[in-house]
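pasting for ref
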Amino acid sequence: MDEACAKLIADVPGNACATAWQDFGEVAVVADREEMAALSDLYASEHTGVHAADLPWWLDRLKNYGSLFLGEETTVRSSPLASGAAWHAQPHPCRARAS
């Protein structure tokens, strides 16, 4: 999985994602969705995207996030942040647990 992600990112010319993946990227293998939700709450990402079955379960279960994007038709790119309506400085990792 790490190699596949690195290859996808490397194929994008002039993309800063390669450095970000090298410095911060990781793949987590978990046993089930409960373990994934617990890990997500521990990370407390500012932008959390879920592409899985039973989206209402994820909405009810996840607690620590800045913005939650559920389903294949929601992305950070279509959020108010991307349109310029909500410009702000990005918080440090895990900051969403305190906000």
